[in-house]
Each structure stands twice: as structure tokens, then as C-alpha cells.
Design brief:
Blueprint lengths: L47 E8 L8 E3 L2 E8 L2 E8 L5 E8 L20 E3 L2 E5 L4 E6 L5 E6 L18 E3 L2 E8 L3 E7 L6 E7 L8 E5 L2 E7 L3 E6 L5 E6 L12 E2 L4 E5 L3 E10 L2 E10 L10 E3 L2 E6 L5 E6 L5 E4 L8 E5 L3 E6 L3 E6 L7 E6 L10 E3 L2 E5 L3 E7 L1
Antiparallel strand pairs: 1-32, 2-3, 3-4, 4-5, 6-7, 7-8, 8-9, 10-11, 11-12, 12-13, 14-15, 15-16, 16-17, 18-19, 19-20, 20-21, 22-23, 23-24, 24-25, 26-27, 27-28, 28-29, 30-31, 31-32
Length: 410
């Protein structure tokens, strides 16, 4: 039960067109934690110092960046806020507020009420979905609310569910969200991003906390996500179910964003360990076939990254180990001693793997499949950091307990 208190914090595929330093959605341009080369410092500095700080309120939603603006979703109870900040100066350009009363799960009494899901920026719009399942589209220039869809009647926290956490996704010109709860079941909905009109919907088990991703498998584009008891693949064109495999968890803590390597589908859970599946079609029917399982690498809230046949991530074993795992076999290539962190946001740079821990420590390790190799370590926040950071060339954008902070190299 101790773990249930913290789990609420928490693609390869079709992504919006972005500029060199845009970070438009959960885990970056293609939802897989990869940082574009142009956004990485040419040399890691001796230290970082604050360039500006903006108080935005509580929440675990990660900041996103589009066209020179930072967008963040937050809460000042009983309202949720959406704030647009000039990335260069730190000036608040606009801020919108709306009421979003939320009855928090009693198991999560120590946690903030969210928001948990990260906004998405595309084509002059910002899309946000809060813990209560209220989806809004905003004009990114003016902050005008364009449309709203309210799914709050399907969000029930009386059992295990702790609030909507799946970040919105764009695929095939449609906005895709995952909503529901363990009481009312789950729904994946595709909408017209301009109007909010529903194009299709899929219904099934209640959601986990993972965000959906896209996998291109031959001529098929699949949306893949976790429910509170399974991993599912659906057709991105019409929401038709393609396949499902059981992935049960006693506390419904399916949090890790699935990772599609192009050959393997990787999923992980605190009690399930890490699994790889192969997706294949025969006779017009799709299936996901298990190819390996590593029970000793169990990722709880920290989604991994992939490069050169290797997964890099944080396993919950030994109170937090940085690990490297062979993506084809599941064999552990290396692991640190442990006690690294309860959580780390993991990013992949061209030559490094970055781990931003919940204690405010940024660990920069060389991308090395043979051993953990530390390049730099920085203390960049005195309060907890659960959100994914954003690299902006020589600058770094972080979200701590109540603020968005831009850090520049000293």
C-alpha cells in the first residue's frame, strides 16, 4: 500500500511538425524521450543557475514548448490553470483558470491532486486534460478556450483509481485521449482537434496511468496503451481492437509508457517486471507474442528510453537502480548499486542518457552499453522534480513542486 501513495505522479510514430527547440508533448517530439541534437548543450557546463522562475501551482504535468512559449498545466485548488510563458524572458503571456473540483483517492493522501497528464501543442492549439477528465483546447497565442469535452462522470476515485494521467496524442490528424476509471471502465477517444467532434471511440477495461503511443507495423498504424489489467493495440484509423495481452497488477499500477523499438514492444510494471512482445499479423489477425521477461528489472513510474539495441531506465529494485537492458534478449547489461531515487525522468541525448530524479538531481551518463559511466551530476532543485525536463540548447527547463524554472549554464 505504501507505493500507492506515489504512483499518481507519473512514440515512435506520428508526431506534430516541430522546430529544433520545440518539445510539444509528453516525452518529446516523438514520445520516446529522445532529445534532438540541436537541443543538447555543446558541452555540459560546470553548473546551472536560474535564469527565471514562474510560480504556477502544484501538479506533475510536464512543461511543453512550442514556438518560443512554455505551456504548463497546474492546480490552485479548486481550479486548474493553464499558463503560457515566454521562453526567453519568463514573462507570463496568458493564464487561464477553470474550476475542477477533485475528490482525491484516500490512498494518495500525501500526493498533490494533479494534473498528471502533459499538454500537447500543435497547429496553434494547446490541449490539456486534467485529473478529473476535463479536456480543453486553447488558442496558443491568445489563451482563448476553443472547446471543452468533459469526461468527469467516468472518473471515479472510490476504489483504486487516482485520476486521469494519460497524455493526449496526435495521430492521423486526430487527437486521441484515454479516460475512465476502474469503476466505469475505460475509453480511448479520437477527436477532431479543431472542433472536439468524436471520430471514433474504443471501450474496454479502466485506464492505467500510462500514455498511449503509436507503433507503425508494416502498413498498420497501431495505438498501443496499458489498461489497468492489460496491454492493448487498436487500429488508429477507426479504433478497432487488434490484440490484447493480460498485464494485471494488484493495485492497477500500470504506469510505464509503452516503448516501441521498431521490432520489440517493451512494457514494465512494479510487480510484473519488464516484458518484450513481438507484434505480428497472420490471416488478417494481429497478435502480441512474448519474446522475453526480466522479473529483476521492474520499472514503476520511470519510462525507459532505447538506443542501439539497449534500453536505459530506472528499475525500482534496491530502492532505485539505473539499468541497461538488451532489448532483444532482456539480459541485464549493467546496473548501479541502488538507492538512486524513487523516480527518474529518463531522456536520451545523442551521446548521453539523462536521469532527472525526484530529489532534484540531474545525472548525465555517457551512452555506454558496457557499464554505467557518469559524465556530470547536478543539483538543480531543492524541491521534488517529478516532471520530464526540457533541454533548450544550453538551457534547461524544469518543473518542481510549484514552479517552472529555466536554468542556464554558469
Amino acid at each position: 500500500m505504501r507505493r500507492i501513495l506515489s504512483f499518481c505522479i507519473a512514440l515512435s510514430g506520428f508526431a506534430p511538425v516541430v522546430f529544433a527547440q520545440d518539445w510539444p508533448q509528453w516525452r518529446g517530439p516523438v514520445r520516446d524521450g529522445r532529445v534532438p541534437a540541436a537541443a543538447v548543450p555543446s558541452a555540459w557546463p560546470a553548473a546551472f543557475a536560474p535564469a527565471w522562475t514562474v510560480e504556477v501551482g502544484e501538479g506533475y504535468s510536464s512543461p511543453v514548448v512550442g514556438a518560443g512559449r512554455v505551456f504548463v498545466h497546474s492546480r490552485r485548488d479548486p481550479n486548474e490553470l493553464v499558463t503560457a510563458i515566454d521562453a526567453a524572458s519568463g514573462k507570463t503571456v496568458w493564464q487561464q483558470s477553470y474550476e475542477a473540483a477533485f475528490a482525491k483517492n484516500s490512498y494518495a493522501s500525501k500526493m498533490a491532486k494533479g494534473p498528471h497528464a502533459t499538454p500537447l501543442v500543435d497547429a496553434g492549439r494547446v490541449f490539456t486534460i486534467g485529473a478529473t477528465g476535463v479536456l480543453n483546447a486553447w488558442d496558443s497565442a491568445s489563451g482563448k478556450r476553443l472547446w471543452t469535452k468533459d469526461f468527469s462522470k467516468s472518473v471515479d476515485t472510490s476504489k483504486l483509481f487516482c485520476g486521469t494521467a494519460a497524455s493526449p496524442l496526435l495521430v492521423g490528424g486526430r487527437l486521441v485521449i484515454q479516460v475512465g476509471s476502474d469503476v466505469h471502465g475505460g475509453e480511448i477517444v479520437a477527436l477532431d482537434p479543431a472542433t472536439g467532434t468524436t471520430a471514433w471511440s474504443w471501450r474496454g477495461p479502466g485506464p492505467g496511468y500510462a500514455s498511449p503511443v503509436v507503433a507503425s507495423t508494416g502498413s498498420m498504424t497501431q495505438i498501443i496503451t496499458l489498461t489497468n489489467q492489460s496491454v492493448v493495440g487498436i487500429d488508429a484509423r477507426d479504433g478497432a481492437p487488434l490484440w490484447s495481452v493480460p498485464f494485471p497488477d494488484d493495485w492497477h499500477e500500470n504506469i510505464i509508457t509503452p516503448l516501441w523499438t521498431g521490432a520489440e514492444l517493451i512494457v514494465s510494471g512494479i510487480r510484473q517486471g519488464t516484458h518484450a512482445f513481438r507484434l505480428s499479423e497472420a490471416g488478417g489477425k494481429w497478435q502480441a507474442t512474448s519474446i522475453w521477461k526480466n522479473a529483476d528489472v521492474a520499472m514503476y513510474m520511470s519510462s525507459p528510453v532505447y538506443a542501439d539495441g539497449v534500453l536505459y531506465g530506472l528499475s525500482s529494485r534496491r530502492r532505485g537502480q539505473f539499468v541497461a537492458v538488451d532489448a532483444k534478449t532482456g539480459a541485464l547489461k549493467w546496473a548501479t548499486e541502488g538507492r538512486e531515487a524513487d523516480h527518474a525522468s529518463v531522456l536520451l541525448a545523442p551521446k548521453h542518457v539523462l536521469f532527472l530524479t525526484n530529489t532534484g538531481t540531474l545525472v548525465v551518463a555517457r551512452r555506454d552499453a558496457s557499464a554505467f559511466s557518469l559524465e556530470k551530476k547536478y543539483t538543480i532543485s531543492e524541491s521534488e522534480t517529478w516532471a520530464v525536463p526540457v533541454l533548450l540548447g544550453g538551457d534547461l527547463l524544469i518543473r518542481d513542486a510549484s514552479r517552472v524554472v529555466k536554468l542556464s549554464a554558469k
